[in-house]
Amino acid sequence: MPDSSALRQSLEALRHQLNGLAELDAAGVEALEVRLLGRKQGVLTELLRQLPGLPPEDKRSIGAEANRLKLECEAAFQARREALKAAADAAAARGIDRTMPGRARWVGGVHPVTRVMEEIVSIFHGLGFARATGPEAETEWYNFGALNFPPDHPAMDMHDTLYLDIPERRTGEDRRRNRTSGVAEPAERREPSDRRFLDQGRWLMRTHTSPVQIRVMQGEPPPIRVVIPGWVYRKDPFDASHAPVFAQVEGLAVDEGISFVDLKATLSHFAREFFGSATAVRFRPSFFPFTEPSAEMDVGCGVCGGRGCPACKGTGWMEILGAGMVHPNVLVNCGLDPERYTGFAFGMGPQRIALNRYGIPDIRLLYEGDMRFLEQFTR
Ligand code: PHE
User: How many structural domains compose the chain?
Assistant: First the structure.
């Protein structure tokens, strides 16, 4: 036997559906009318069908209520239809043709570079890495000194830095901080990498996201696991493969007992998550002042599957990141004991990855904001 009180509730719920009527256009009114009053499957029709099964006293009152509701619905639909018709007539009188197709609006989308950066961050998030960020205007100490760049090392020229025309940072507070930044002093006494940086030195636009490694290590004790998405600046010409401002995603893990095995396993896992489970990876020795040993990781070219094509310059491999074990001097510069802690770091260029993944021939397309290009990436 149908449940009388459930039926009463259904009728009440149905009445609420009429509330949105004023927002509906003709097609919407029609659809709602079929849904509520349709002769085969209409909600009210179905409810009315249950009436004969009710106890006599309920049958009468619920039946009356259902019929009242049915009339209400019919009146409301009729009123809305008339209102729409009146509006259309008025518009027509003013020379507006409501049957013209509307102007399509642009649908916003996530920029392909942002999308790649977020995907990278989320894969590392799954491995327990938190997101960290740092300032784009940095000092020589954070960008170079703390990262173990020796004076006049060629790597520093490579970075072709944009210096800022503001006074160097020399404050008592900084001097104190940097004096204590070499405090770890394990087995043998260690000096901060370079006495030139006892003050923070000149201001510059960061040439990589690696200075954020220093800020993270200064800010929290190990265990540390962070990914650092951000924008970096170099005095590069703007051409098909270079830009003076470009994106990086940095990573840093510092803890007791971290080894090169962790680096290889973590980055191989990342490559397979990002590029697909069958992706081949290889590590080649490399050099960075702030990691030792250092490596570069290649993945099998996704465009030709490793056979060799213009995208991979015929090699079958694409270089996607630099990495290595955090140099002991860097740990000391952050006040950490390198006898106790080890770590690995990596840095990659999401734009290069986006160019490869989407087969984009010129990095400048990523900067121009041309809708004909960007629309290809809206979902
Ligand atoms: N900072 C390096 C670069 O910009 C990349 C890197 C980061 C290498 C971390 C090793 C470890 O080229």
Answer: 2
Name the residue at shortest CA distance from atom 2 of ligand 1: 347
Give the residue whose CA is nearest to atom 10 of ligand 1.
323
Rounded to 5°, the CA angle 288-303-230 comes to: 40
Tell me whether residue 313 is in a domain.
yes
Closest residue by Cα to atom 7, ligand 1, is: 347
Whole-number Å distance, alpha carbon 325 to ligand 1 midpoint, is 11
Q: Which atom of ligand 1 is nearest to 248's Cα?
A: 4
The pTM of this model reads 0.69
* Minimal-distance CA residue to ligand 1 atom 9: 346
Could you read off the pLDDT of 81-116 as tens digits, one per residue? 888 888 888 888 888 887 888 888 877 889 999 999
> Is the residue at 186 inside a domain?
no
Per-residue model confidence as pLDDT tens digits over 319-344: 999 999 999 999 999 999 999 999 99
Portion of the chain with pLDDT greater than 90, in percent: 44
Residues 76 and 126 in one domain: no
Atom of ligand 1 nearest to the CA of 322: 8
Print the domain residue range for 308.
112-133+214-377
